[in-house]
Structure formats: C-alpha cells, structure tokens
Design a protein that fits this description.
With 150 residues, this protein is an alpha+beta fold. It has helices at 7-16, 26-30, 65-76, 104-143; strands spanning 41-48, 54-61, 83-86, 96-101. The protein has 4 helices and 4 strands, in the order H-H-E-E-H-E-E-H.
Length: 150
C-alpha cells in the first residue's frame, strides 16, 4: 500500500514547474469540458484509489488541455518528484490523471529505461573522450621529441 498523497504537495510541484493552478472546486471541475476555460492550467482534488489510499486527481483545463496534461504527467513523473500519474483509471475523465507516490519498483524501472535510452549517447561521449586523450598523449610525446616510426 502506497502512502497518502496530498494536494498541497502536488500543487507545489506543478506550480514550481511553471504550470498555472486554476483553483477550480469539485463542482467546477465536473461541470463543462476541459476546453471551457480560457487559460491553460490544472486543478486538483482528493480521491481514493482501489486500495483505499488517498490520492490526488489532477485535471488539465484550457484550450490546449492535452499539452497541459502531458506537461503535468511529465513533471510529476520526473526523477526529483517521484510520483506516478495514471490516466487509464476507469472513473477518470480524458483530461484527468490520478497521482500517487511511485513505488521503489517503478522508480527502478524508470531509471533502467532512462539508462537504456542514453546508452548510445554515453558510448559516443566515452569514445570521443578516449580519442581526445589519445591525441593529447600523441602530441605530448611529439613535443618531448618522441615520434612514431611511421
């Protein structure tokens, strides 16, 4: 069972990420669609998951709510925030995600996936550093009067 997630914590993480808190109450969130608001932003409410754990439901609103939803999910699942945003929960609307603290297994899986995505770049950087070091050593030897036979 994961630990309880509070709206104030999630709100702080999203606002620090540059998103706008619209401050809608539950009635305003349920009335109308996500594109009924002029400003792109988010709004929060408390809820419970299937295990009975307190979670936060984040809704994206505004003319470009889909982009806002992607920003919310990306921000909450970033390594320093350590949350999980679930959009495939049956009782949620299309513009909402359920947010809870990520488990250790989820965090490890994210770290492994990130390492696999970055592996080609890391290998290329190491190869370039090795080439630079070999070139610097060759120049150093030539400056000392030791040159290769060929």
């Amino acid at each position: 069972m994961s630990r309880a997630t509070r709206t104030s914590t999630i709100r702080r993480h999203l606002v620090e990420g540059g998103l706008i808190d619209l401050g809608l109450d539950v009635y305003e969130q349920k009335a109308g669609g996500p594109d009924q608001h002029e400003t792109d932003g988010f709004s929060l409410r408390q809820g419970f998951d299937s295990a009975g754990t307190l979670v936060v439901i984040v809704g994206a609103y505004g003319p470009n709510w889909l982009r806002t939803l992607a920003e919310v999910t990306g921000r909450l699942e970033s390594p320093h925030v350590k949350c999980t945003a679930l959009g495939d929960v049956p009782e949620l609307a299309d513009h909402e995600v359920m947010t809870r603290w990520a488990t250790s297994a989820e965090l490890q899986a994210r770290k492994t996936a990130e390492a696999q995505r970055q592996a080609p770049l890391v290998a290329q950087l190491r190869r370039q550093e090795a080439e630079k070091a070999a070139e610097a050593e060759r120049l150093e030897l030539e400056a000392a009067g030791q040159s290769g036979l060929f």
